[in-house]
Design goal:
It contains 15 helices and five strands. It is mainly alpha-helical. The structure holds adenosine-5'-triphosphate and magnesium ion.
Length: 352
């Protein structure tokens, strides 16, 4: 199967895709604005990146619970392999975000670094033939990506140019094209799906459509998984670009809207928590304290010690007081004690 270089020979902008692109762009722009109501961007990034890491890994059948997920960030030694993989995804995504925002480019070598971080090995671009894509249910080969190292490299160079050079096409439509192309090149032995889903976010950041890395399509893809695979394949077999593009645009729109809702809920909960702490523990209240409680659904004493510059003794008293008024619940894992912001936790668990 020969993969063609970009740009496409046919115009992916049809009346239908353009119309959908308008509403998807509008929802995305609104998300960008709403994200600013949360005072500290780390609050959103932390929770949403973890959620995405969980969902995207789930597409690859790496299943974690929310408990494992949020604990994994806290250096607990007994985390499961699955939680470790989710953690790697998170690191890969944040690394990509850092590379793109500081260099204003999304280069092939960054993509390779991202996959390396994700898979924790340096296999890099495929050199051995034999990688094929199979239908998970029947085991039939649906697609054989390029097998030859030079061909893969050339296609990646072409994709790199397409990503970084300006063109006339709506960037959201471009994102769909780029995702298809990347998955079809399938440059790595493993992790192509997850790396491709990270590239989607980074592309929006690169094009200044997303300031913070907070729009994640994996949950949408999980919900519409059969269509995801079917439409990727139909681009190949039927040149059905229109439906594929619509699918991705709809993902952007729906996810933007549900993320807006989640952010608004987090914001409300922060205000409520602030009011409760102010009223019941006025001596202890500070803006920074509330932010720390929302930065991690699982808090530990060190976060307070470092974030507020207080002694361990004082931090321990704070945590006890916050437990007494019902803002936190404590749990013991092995030798460490953690404090869960229960309402935030259940909000994130319920999800987008
Ligand atoms: N017919 C197809 N054409 C192009 N790409 C496809 C097709 N079917 C699946 N893919 C892509 O291949 C990915 C799977 O590849 P791979 O196993 O290397 O990635 P992964 O990150 O390990 O897995 P996953 O995507 O399941 O999380 C899918 O997520 C999808 O993006
Ligand atoms: Mg895989």
């Amino acid at each position: 199967m020969i993969i063609k270089n970009l740009p496409l020979k046919t115009d992916p902008e049809t009346p239908i895709t353009l119309k959908k692109a308008i509403s998807a762009n509008r929802a995305l722009a609104k998300l960008n604005g709403v994200a600013k109501i949360i005072p500290n961007s780390a609050i959103l990034i932390n929770s949403l990146v973890l959620q995405e890491a969980k969902d995207s890994s789930e597409i690859e059948n790496i299943i974690t619970t929310h408990d494992e997920l949020f604990r994994a960030g806290l250096d607990v030694s007994d985390i499961t392999n699955e939680a470790k993989e989710v953690q790697n995804y998170r690191q890969a995504l944040l690394k990509g975000y850092e590379l793109v925002t500081s260099n204003k480019l999304l280069l092939k070598k960054y993509i390779i670094e991202i996959q390396q971080e994700l898979e924790q090995n340096d296999a890099g671009v495929r050199r051995q033939s034999g990688t094929v894509l199979k239908n998970a249910a029947t085991g039939d080969v649906v697609f054989t990506p390029p097998q030859d190292y030079e061909t893969i490299q050339e296609l990646l160079d072409n994709l790199e140019r397409y990503i970084n050079e300006e063109n006339e096409i709506d960037p959201l439509i471009n994102m769909a094209i780029i995702h298809y192309q990347f998955e079809s090149i399938h440059p790595f032995y493993d992790g192509n799906g997850r790396t491709g889903r990270i590239i989607n976010i980074l592309y929006l950041v690169l094009k200044d459509l997303l300031e913070l890395p907070i729009l994640y399509l994996s949950r949408y893809i999980i919900k519409n998984k059969a269509d995801y695979y079917r439409l990727l394949q139909e681009v190949r077999t039927k040149e059905n670009w229109e439906e594929w593009v619509l699918y991705m645009l709809d993902g952007i729109e729906q996810t933007s809207l549900s993320t807006i809702e989640l952010i608004e809920n987090i914001n409300l909960l922060m205000q409520e928590t602030q009011a409760v702490v102010k009223e019941k523990l006025p001596k202890l209240y500070s803006k920074d304290l509330i932010e720390i409680l929302f930065m991690h659904p699982y808090t530990k004493m060190e976060f307070l010690v470092n974030g507020l510059g207080i002694s361990r003794q004082t931090a321990s008293k704070y945590l006890k007081d916050l437990q007494n008024i019902g803002v936190l619940e404590s749990i013991q894992i092995k030798n460490s004690k953690f404090f869960v912001n229960t309402q935030l936790f259940s909000m994130l668990k319920k999800g987008l």
